From TrEMBL:
UniProt KW keywords: 2Fe-2S, DNA-binding, Iron, Iron-sulfur, Metal-binding, Transcription, Transcription regulation
Name of the protein: Redox-sensitive transcriptional activator SoxR
Top-level taxon: Bacteria
Organism: Pseudomonas kermanshahensis
Pfam families from the UniProt entry: MerR, MerR-DNA-bind
InterPro entries the UniProt entry points to: DNA-bd_dom_put_sf (IPR009061), MerR-type_HTH_dom (IPR000551), MerR_fam (IPR047057), Redox-sen_tscrpt-act_SoxR (IPR010211), Tscrpt_reg_MerR_DNA-bd (IPR015358)
Keyword Cell wall biogenesis/degradation: no
Amino acid sequence: MTAKSSTNSTRLLTVGEVAKRSGVAVSALHFYESKGLIAGTRTAGNQRRYPALVLRTIAIIKVAQRTGIPLEVIKRALGRYPPNSKLTAAQWGEMSSAWREDLNARIRTLEALRDSLDNCIGCGCLSLEDCPLRNPEDVLGKDGAGARILEKEATAKHV
């Protein structure tokens, strides 16, 4: 089996070439393959080879990860198409629009959290009557005064 072919779409790359071209560590490529996100083949000498199209798949994975999309969601989206396939504009549109509402919801949540930070004095008590960040509507106040969340987290770490 040769590492290079006459057409770019059928050209096979070593794991090192894919890592270099994609900017992803070899260990991450192995992880992606173990999770079924990308697919490679093996040579007679048991060396991994990937079609050049895997670079597009890795680019999609990295963009999705940067937006906070979990790998399992990425895997489900990619699983609708053959491994290492060249997605059409329509397929990419379907995939990205499926993620759009989730991303918009997370953006709204982050904006609300950011805007709530102005009301927090950063005292760390976490049991203020009005703490929208960690104790909305003082639900922990019924258990008494003090930093309930911090106490629970500290206890859980030492158990």
